[in-house]
Amino acid sequence: MANDGDGAGKDDAPAKPHFAGHRQRLKERFLKSGGDQLPDYELLELLLFQALPRRDVKPLAKDLLARFGSFAGVVSAEPALIRGVPGAGEAVVVALKTVAAAAERMARDEVAQAPVLGNWDKLVRYCRTAMSRETTEHFRVLFLNRKNVLISDEVQWRGTIDHTPLYPREVVKRALELGAAALIMVHNHPSGDPTPSQADIDMTQQVADAAKSMGILLHDHLIMAKSGHTSFRDLGYL
User: Fold this and answer.
1) Secondary structure (DSSP) of 2-40
2) What is the pLDDT of residue 6?
3) Do 130 and 189 have their domain in common?
4) Which is nearest to 190 in space by CA: 125, 131, 127?
5) pTM strictly above 0.85
6) 126 and 147 part of one domain
7) Is residue 236 part of a domain?
């Protein structure tokens, strides 16, 4: 049946975008073989599909990787820096930071299921996930009960790029409020080098002494960085 010239017929429907077939093939590959078989840019594409359903996202995925270096670098980047990449607006920031939050929560849940000292590798993995790529110094304390099960995991301070103030009395006060029997302190070095400074060593001893006076044990102080981590107990400082 001919149309009247004023409207479009069925054959005039807009063609599918050129990237539609690529998206479908990529989804099928992911479902078949999992993310381990995909390069970083394709895994990023899968995330960006959700944020930008009507755009070819491959160029943006590659631009993000060029800016931040790796998949982990992209999802852990500061929102303001992500927005600085052309084409990466709020929807992209939300998609990427949701992945980062999900990874941190999964790692934290593993730590919370059993005594921490018997799951040390999982604890370190959680702390690295949560802190190693932060661009400013964060200081957190893990509060444990008498069975060394996690009671609470709290970021106590956020500092400048090279300084986080720590007040031993405040740490001990919070431990007493929670009924904690032991502590593990964790902070990050944005420089990438996990080597403790003299200030780190002095502060750790002050907290250990203050905690001990109240019957609370400081198990360890961990420093997280991109290049690895250090343990004050392993180094002989505790």
Assistant:
1) ---SSS--GGGSPPPPTTHHHHHHHHHHHHHH-GGGS-H
2) 46
3) yes
4) 131
5) no
6) yes
7) no
Which residue is associated with the tokens 């050129």?
Answer: 18
**182 shares a domain with 124:** yes
Instruction: Give start and end residues of each alpha helix (H) in the chain.
Output: 20-33, 40-51, 58-68, 71-75, 79-83, 90-112, 120-131, 168-178, 198-212
| Arithmetic mean of pLDDT, 121-129 | 86
Q: Select from 103, 137, 165 the last residue of a domain.
A: 103
The model's pLDDT over 102-124, given as tens digits with 9 standing for 90+, comes to 888 887 777 777 788 888 888 88
- Written as one letter, the residue type at 99 is V
Report pLDDT digits (tens) over 14-64: 456 555 567 788 788 888 877 777 888 888 988 898 888 888 889 999 999
- How many domains is the chain built from? 2
Per-residue CA distances from 31 to 35, 40, 46, 75 (Å): 8, 16, 11, 21
Phi and psi at residue 144, to the nearest 5°: -120, 150
Domain that holds residue 33: 18-103
Say yes or no: 74 and 29 in one domain: yes
- Which amino acid makes up residue 29? R
Tokens of 140: 């957190």
75 occurs within a structural domain: yes
Distance of CA 231 to the CA centre of its chain: 20
Query: CB of 95 within 8 A of CB of 51?
Result: yes
3 state DSSP class of 53: coil
